[in-house]
Amino acid sequence: MEQVLEAHQKEYGTKPDVVAVAPGRFHLIGEHSWFFKDKTLSMAVNLPVYVALSRRSDTNLRFYFPQMDDHKRANLASLKFRKEDKWANAVKSIIYGFSSGGFDCGGLNVTVSSGVQPSAGFGITTAIKVASAWALKDLYGFRCTRNELLQVIERANRLYFGSTNYKADNFTAIFSKENSLVLTDYARNDYETIPFKFKGKTILLTDARVPRITTWNEESLLQPENVLLLGELKERRSNVFGGWRYEESGTERSEVLSVVNEDTKRRLVCIMNEHKFVLEALAGLQDNDFASFARAVNHSHENLRDSYDISCPEVDWILKRVQELDECPDDLRTPVNCGRITGKGFGRCTYSVLRTEDVPKYREKLQDYERIFGFKAVCYEVKPARGVHLL
């Protein structure tokens, strides 16, 4: 907080009028299945993003990111997406979200502060948007409920960025609580907070620093006809969270999916499996059964690696080392550690939930990783954090 105040004062010659902070986040399971009205399990983490604002007497916008030593400029009259504005587009989009909804904003000095750069893929860009929304509301005294602020953010994503796949991101950054996860249900357009009660565990986010490469076009899977196919395989079950599950019969799945090519079939099956793993992880959380939770996490990575084609040798190597930390790494029934790919797009990051005593061994493995692959991984020890708030 002191660093934010000092940076803003030094850059603009005045203290900020308001400062908001929002958490980083990562998705544990289900982030690729939003289009099919499935569920996503996410965690807000204590990688805070601060947004400090002060008023200007003109209509200009000035942006400063001290950790990147980066400056951007804009004007209220020309709030358009510009690729060269990079991280500043997140703030600009929220200003646009307010103005397109009938709220009037003035010129601003903006400082965005984060120890993690937006390119890492730990929800930093979403945190900038959410913190900006809360700061602008307070600065101008806008009368908005939380749900109305959520509409501002969604309008910013839709109209400014041309994207709508941010529901789980927004719910997690806004509604999360300490020591809890957020379960987003796209079918109900709602969320629930789920307590994370496992003791003696440490959560690590690892940026493998592998250049992010798109291996196939995910948009090709997100077609209405594929939604209809998976809809045929949904079964109502009153004893299942959310009230439904996918048909598990391989014969039934093959018959319904026989109209698509093998790549599409394999990836649609992956989506169905992800839904099952979300429910299994949820059951493990509710029963305080870490082994069940860990199995779901590990199976989810295998599912994405083998059927969704989004992993890479470097990420797989790191997660293999996580499994080897168990006393009986070949006993897949009762794992005491777990991990999975995560991150922006097709991911270059992993999360691991480890026994605390295994953390030093894991960090030693990352030194081997650098020697073998030539990339210096960056590791963050994190905890489940509360959602956005003013300071």
Describe this structure in words.
This protein has 391 residues and is of the alpha+beta class. 39% of the residues lie in helices and 24% in strands. Strands 1, 2, 3, 4, 5, 6, 7 and 14 form an 8-stranded mixed sheet that branches. The chain has a 4-stranded antiparallel sheet with strand order 11-12-8-13. Strands 9-10 form a two-stranded antiparallel sheet. Strand 3 (60-65) and strand 4 (70-75) form a beta hairpin. Helix 4 (146-161) packs antiparallel against helix 5.
Number of strands: 14
SSE ordering: HEEEEHEHHHEEEHEEHHHHEEHEE
Please report which band the strand proportion falls in: under 5%, 5-15%, 15-25%, 25-35%, 35-45% or over 45%: 15-25%
Main sheet, how many strands, which sense, barrel? 8 strands, mixed
| Low-confidence region ranges | none
Radius of gyration: 22 Å
Return the average pLDDT rounded to an integer. 94
**Terminal residue distance:** 8 Å
Determine the fraction of residues in helical runs and give it as a percent range.
25-40%
The best one-word shape is globular
Quick recap of the structure?
The protein is of the alpha+beta class.
Kindly list the characteristics that best describe this protein.
8-stranded mixed sheet, 391 residues, alpha+beta, 4-stranded antiparallel sheet
Describe the SSE topology.
Layout: H1 2-12, E1 18-29, E2 39-55, E3 60-65, E4 70-75, H2 88-99, E5 108-114, H3 124-140, H4 146-161, H5 167-175, E6 180-185, E7 190-195, E8 201-207, H6 224-232, E9 234-236, E10 244-246, H7 250-256, H8 262-286, H9 290-308, H10 313-324, E11 338-342, E12 349-355, H11 359-373, E13 378-382, E14 389-390
Parallel strand pairs: 3-5
Antiparallel strand pairs: 1-2, 1-14, 2-5, 2-6, 3-4, 6-7, 8-12, 8-13, 9-10, 11-12
Helix pairs in contact: 2-3, 2-4, 4-5, 8-9, 10-11
